[in-house]
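Incident review: delayed structure delivery

Summary: a single-chain prediction request sat in the queue longer than the usual turnaround. Root cause was a stuck worker, restarted by the on-call engineer. No data loss occurred. The affected request and its eventual output are reproduced below so the record is complete for anyone auditing the incident later.

Affected input:
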Amino acid sequence: MGDLAKIFKAYDVRGVVPDELDEPIAEAVGAAFVEETGAESVVVAHDMRESSGPLADAFVRGARSRGADVVHAGLGSTDLLYYASGSLGLPGVMFTASHNPARYNGMKMCRAGAVPIGGDTGLTEIRDRAAELIGTPMAPTGSLIEKNLLQGYAEHLRTLVDLSANRPLKVVVDAGNGMGGHTVPAVFGGLPIELTPLFFELDGSFPNHEANPLEPANLIDLQKAVIEAGADVGLAFDGDADRCWVVDERGESVSPSAITALVAARELAKHPGATIIHNLITSRGVPELVREHGGDPVRTRVGHSFIKAEMARTGAVFGGEHSAHYYFRDFWFADSGMLAAMHVLAALGEQERPLSQVVAAYSRYHATGEINSTVADQDEALRRVRAAFAGRGEVNDLDGLTVSAPDWWFNLRASNTEPLLRLNAEAADETTMTAVRDEVLGLLREVTQ
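Output delivered after worker restart:
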């Protein structure tokens, strides 16, 4: 149990291959997954990592040993797996470690309709049952159907955002040797897009840079290529292509908060008065803009399980996170970096202004971005910051410590897995933002010294 407890996280499975996650474990998880979901059929997909195919095949053996038929979609992005689960009405499993280094792999699981499986919704039971089954002989009885779902996925996305009448756009895409190199050509092919591909070769060793667009160093190649090509926009996907980062025509990063507000405005134009979900460290401008467009903004904790649960509860049409995850009601409440990218291309291509001017309307404040600090005593650090800011703003404890004043706010959250505190701060002007940021970081340094 010890080993499985280490790799079964709150929302997924992730560990080093083969030390922590290997084929016998994947096989046992496959059997346990079928037992927990009661599924007669399941769908499986995997990313381009060297270990992903063998792990997926082992999972399939375990699932079939419990009598389940398996639809094997082969290579795919995580949102392709969500499409498969939603369109086929089947529980599904995606083998990926997202943006983690090459030696990692993992599983993202969902029930039929792409409903996520987490620690409170079946993942713990799957872990415990798999621990009992490891090493048990398993003879497949269910059938295996290999099915290429890429074209269906691409066609479905095109029904949600129609780009066919757009003005022609020059688009640079950095797939980071991840699954965007597989899905982007299928989705963009035949559209009025002049595509410049960067690192589309599927390579789970990530020879060019990490497939993590949240790290600025991993955007340098894209930013340079956008400027050199005179492109209208740059898009960067993470390893399993469920996140998308946007760069404007100047090579400047566009805040995911601005993208959240832009997509929210587009969804509200189709669904007047609808609910929009945003997490508590997106820009203050997001709920402001949602209200101005007639929508109802709802604030949640950080994390996809909270976003998806709140979307399901409220019937929200869209949700956005600072981490460049974007969730859509018309995509089974699941997240899709590709669908968010298509909304950006539609907003850009249906008028003549450059992207920097389009997103300027959705960028109202100055933000720090997320700053991580290693802190030995998280509770003491939070206590000091709370005391220092007492009486200076409204205090909220929904997810860490949030202090809000009329012209600034900050949130300080503890990492669930590392001795880190994560700071996000925002203000009406850069001077105030810098002052708030430096004061909080100074207090954290006192605790670490």
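Verification: The chain has 15 helices and 23 strands.
Action items: add queue-age alerting; document worker restart procedure.
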